[in-house]
Design goal:
This protein has about 210 residues and is of the alpha/beta class. About 35% of the residues lie in helices and about 15% in strands. It starts with 14 loop residues before the first strand and ends in a 5-residue tail after the last helix. The model has no long low-confidence stretch (mean pLDDT about 95). The structure holds zinc ion.
Length: about 210
């Protein structure tokens, strides 16, 4: 989609005309009609249950494409100084292209519900909205879950656990003040079925009537 159908040049920074919607080539003015769908992010600290919910929802959503953002992670994306920009640009580009098939994408992953990682991306413009849902839980649940993970994932390290306990608290304290605000779902004491049903409901509410 970033290659212009008229002049053949590659530009990510097309101008968006929501009336089409069109993505307009800044070089030749060609109007590329596209599907401008919402993008949904389900995030939260490591250990809050994102992956479990993701696996539970696989095959159950009729009108959205769920994907786990970890599948594209590579060491070269580990650039905290620019909020992991290249990683998020890749995911937005991929989601934009998948959306052209008519279904919005729901991404699951840890840093996805930090709007400041996503909103400044050049590819953000191709979505009608980005909706954010962070799963949270009590600190001790995170500690237990991370300690129980297999050693190769290196999640049992006290420093790693501390980072994610703090990240979890950060969502609880800041979610409503973020721009845009991040919605929260506290999964403490909820069964996986219950949590998945609530996440599925949230997805339905966000994409209802907006699917092409
Ligand atoms: Zn062009």
């Amino acid at each position: 989609m970033n290659v212009c159908n008229n002049c053949g040049e590659y530009r990510v920074d097309k101008e968006i005309d929501p009336a089409g919607p069109y993505a307009i080539c800044p070089l030749c003015g060609f109007k590329h009609e596209f599907r401008m769908l919402p993008l949904l992010m389900v995030g939260g600290a490591c250990g809050v249950g994102k992956s479990t919910v993701y696996h539970h929802l696989l095959g159950t959503l009729d009108s959205a494409v769920p994907l786990d953002s970890d599948i594209l992670w590579r060491p070269e994306f580990n650039q905290p100084e620019d909020n992991y920009r290249q990683f998020f640009e890749v995911w937005l580009r991929l989601s934009k292209n998948i959306s052209q098939g008519g279904c919005p994408v729901v991404l699951f992953g840890s840093g996805l519900t930090v709007p400041e990682n996503v909103e400044p991306c050049v590819e953000r413009r191709y979505f009608s909205a980005v909706h954010y849902l962070a799963l949270t839980c009590d600190d001790e649940v995170i500690v237990e879950r991370l300690q129980a993970r297999p050693a190769w994932r290196k999640c049992g390290d006290p420093e790693f656990i501390d980072v994610h306990v703090k990240f979890n608290r950060w969502f609880k304290e800041k979610a409503s003040t973020l721009e845009p605000p991040v919605e929260l779902l506290d999964t403490t004491g909820m069964s996986i079925e219950e949590t998945s049903a609530q996440v599925a409901q949230w997805i339905d509410a966000k994409i209802g009537g907006k699917v092409a």
